[in-house]
Amino acid sequence: MTAAQRSYLQTLATEAGESVDPEIELTKAEAAVRIEELQKQTGGGNRRSGARECVTSRN
Fold this sequence. Notes:
By secondary structure, the chain is an all-alpha fold. The protein has helices spanning 3-15, 28-42, 44-53. It has one domain. The longest helix has 15 residues, at 28-42. This is DUF3072 domain-containing protein.
């Protein structure tokens, strides 16, 4: 997993009341799956996708 994935995974796990073993080694794909699972538990994904949905066009 990337450093950014590790950091985000730790943040989400904390929000979900879980812990992440600092020695765990995941592939990028495995980390992405775990992040998705934690986002569903914490609502963490809603903040990011919401920002993209607020884009408006100028006339």
